[in-house]
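Priority: medium. Attachment 1 of 2:
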């Protein structure tokens, strides 16, 4: 599977460029833009299987300590979409919170709809990286405060840093057969300026890679029981 060093070399080759005509900073920016677009395609694919960039060393789960009477909690800005919010009750059981929105309560502020502290039952997504829980947590009588809030989310790509480009060994976190899509996608803006006759060819190659990516990830699902009928083989 190609590393970032090999992907960058391929981009330069596609453009007939050098590190002088296509500076490293510009190449990094275009590669990361392409990376995030590819991840966006993957995340949009329907199905129960949830993708996560294989370069991350932790699961896409954020955990925080609850604070008595505090409603707002912020999380890492890498997450794109909340999958599930949970709180741990005083007995150690995780409870799923229901999503709500102010519009559901009309002119009644959510703070007034849930005036008393206790064990949270609902959450409202306030901004891209902040939620509010209702009711606010109490003093620990009914909820576990330490690491008692958990958010499962979907996050964007673990994009490259200049240091990782220098090291040159990191690989993209999606199927290896399509890694060079980043080279073609990064090359297109450069070629639109300096090698316009190549743009259509490279765009077609990107479409082919995209089809491969979508086909691959649309087939993946979370582990779940499969219904076996008389027409199906147990050994395929």
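Attachment 2 of 2:
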């Amino acid at each position: 599977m190609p590393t970032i060093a090999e992907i960058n070399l391929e981009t330069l080759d596609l453009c007939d460029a050098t590190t002088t005509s296509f500076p490293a900073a510009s190449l990094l920016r275009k590669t990361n833009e392409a990376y995030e677009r590819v991840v966006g395609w993957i995340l949009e694919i329907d199905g129960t299987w949830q993708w996560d960039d294989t370069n991350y060393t932790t699961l896409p789960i954020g955990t925080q300590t609850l604070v008595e009477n505090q409603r707002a909690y912020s999380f890492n800005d890498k997450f794109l979409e909340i999958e599930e919010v949970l709180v741990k009750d005083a007995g150690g059981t995780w409870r799923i919170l229901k999503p709500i929105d102010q519009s559901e309560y009309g002119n009644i502020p959510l703070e007034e709809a849930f005036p008393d502290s206790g064990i949270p039952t609902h959450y409202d997504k306030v901004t891209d990286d902040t939620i509010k829980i209702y009711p606010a947590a109490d003093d620990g009588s009914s909820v576990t405060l330490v690491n008692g809030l958990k958010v499962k989310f979907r996050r964007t790509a673990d994009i490259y840093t200049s240091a990782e480009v220098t090291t040159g060994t990191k690989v993209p976190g999606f199927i290896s057969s399509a890694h060079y899509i980043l080279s073609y996608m990064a090359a297109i803006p450069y070629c639109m300026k300096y090698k316009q006759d190549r743009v259509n060819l490279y765009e077609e190659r990107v479409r082919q890679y995209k089809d491969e990516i979508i086909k691959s990830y649309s087939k993946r699902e979370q582990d779940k029981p499969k219904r076996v009928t008389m027409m199906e083989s147990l050994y395929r």
